[in-house]
Amino acid sequence: MAAALTINGSRIDIPAGVSLFEAATRAGVRVPTSCVAQGKCKECIVEVTAGAELLSPPTRYEEHLDVRSSHFRLSCQSRAIADTGEIECHTMRRGHMRIERHALNLPTSHQRMPLDPAVTRRDTDRILIDGVEVARSTDHIYGLAIDLGTTTVVMRLINLESGELVADSSFENPQRFGGSDVMSRIHYDTEHRGKLLRRTLAGYLTHAIEELPVDPKSIYEVVIAGNSTMRDLFFRQSVYTIGQNPYRSITEIEMAEGKRQTTSLVETGRRCLLPIHPNARVYGLPIVSGHVGADAAACMLAVDLAHEDRRIAVMDIGTNTELIVGNKHRILAASCPAGPAFEGGAISCGMPGLEGAIEDVVLNDDGTFRLGVIGERPPEGVCGSGLVDLMSELLRTGRMNEMGRFDDDVHRIVIDPDTGISFLESDVNELAQAKGANVAGLHVVFASYGIDFNDIEVFYLAGGFGRHLKKEASKRIGLIPNIPDSKIVQVGNASIEGASIALLSVARRQELEALVKKVEHCRLETHPGFFDFFVDGCQFKPVESADQVTR
Ligand code: FES
Predict the structure, then answer these.
(1) What gap in Å lies between CA 428 and CA 400, rounded to an integer?
(2) 105: number of Cβ within 10 Å
(3) Distance, CA 380 to ligand 1 centroid (Å)?
(4) Residues 6+ apart with CB under 8 A from 86
(5) Which of 2, 210, 295, 367 lies at 20 to 30 Å from 18 by C-alpha?
(6) Which residues line ligand 1 (CB under 6 A)?
């Protein structure tokens, strides 16, 4: 007799006394590790979604994981203690997220611009960074662009001599054990000295780099984009001040005190614990201000804001939604703490945009659902774009009202009878609040700029999630402004595209350094209309400009 373990979709028996790590290995599932199951590296973390009570109590190596309030365990420390039952868990590197190889519909692209990288070659074998020799090699020269998202990490390997995209990779940010949003991560990092968050991420990045199809030592520069918290955690900065009013990164504080000229950061590969060339440089893009981080800066590069005359908006919907409005003459930016709901977090049926995620939902006249699943396999949950579709369909057919209440006193709607995947009214509440934060951000930024939504010529919807949204459904539930489809341009992951551009052009990098200093930071929490906008934004109805909002 043995309990059954399902890990990353693979099923295997797990006899009592066997660890999740050992069972996973037997099932052919690779769990990240650098300490060979000694409890030291903290990389073998898994999220247990069923059967946690069938596992041994946490050991001293798991003190950093609050197993009472979260479902994270170190797989090398958790052993089966029962002879029957079902345990389900997954690692933080489930499959591959869908990556847009090329950002779409952007005015510029790292593949269409003149190359001007910081890393160059002279005399066939001398490798230089900013004209200073750092190595000798006749091999290709590579660089990495990395977008450190709160939920997802995306990486691109680029040949710095040809500009060619050689490989890309992505994984769920393993720091999720420290909370799903930036404020919890800041709290966790402050409570748990010892840089656990950073070390765990560095371990995952190391594995991802070692899996790339080139010698890691031929990587000479890395450009990091990410929100202020993710970027500063990576660079070993204290993030405490980002979590306290007025929410400033240490780099921003030091710049205000005249101690530094820029909020960008530079380190060596060695000090960043990455297995790249030891003399390689790691450059953290500048942050704008507060929570408007290096990811927003990267988006500005991707949409070529430094040369833009038209009035544009960029909305990058994520755990933190970035908003940028303006043109080269005046730019306003804000960050909205939306939380992870639209990335599938905190939703009973939610999951990231991986194989098995429902991404398309149509509600038929007979009340049944037609579902589109990524990878055309049995559904396991619903990803962000599927959730937007689902709510739009419920709204269209009157099964949910504008307040997010289901009809007929029903609190649960079964979407897929075969698997039992259901959508709860309490899920709608989570999504309403995430949407409310985004809508409030939109209203505050546009009102501060003194324009309304229709004054915008191009509305860029950025991010992996934004790429897959249906415009009609997004407008119906009020996730994005109710403007003509022709103005809405879905551009994929603009942040990684911006990081790639910075990797390939010193001139563009310098332009960005100057541009971020011109950006006016819109502090949402201090705006007098924020709360009303938030309450209004929690309703599921089209979002019109502020003067049309009925309050
Ligand atoms: S394998 Fe290193 S802590 Fe579990």
Answers:
(1) 10
(2) 12
(3) 28
(4) 3, 4, 6, 50, 51
(5) 210
(6) 33, 35, 37-44, 74, 76
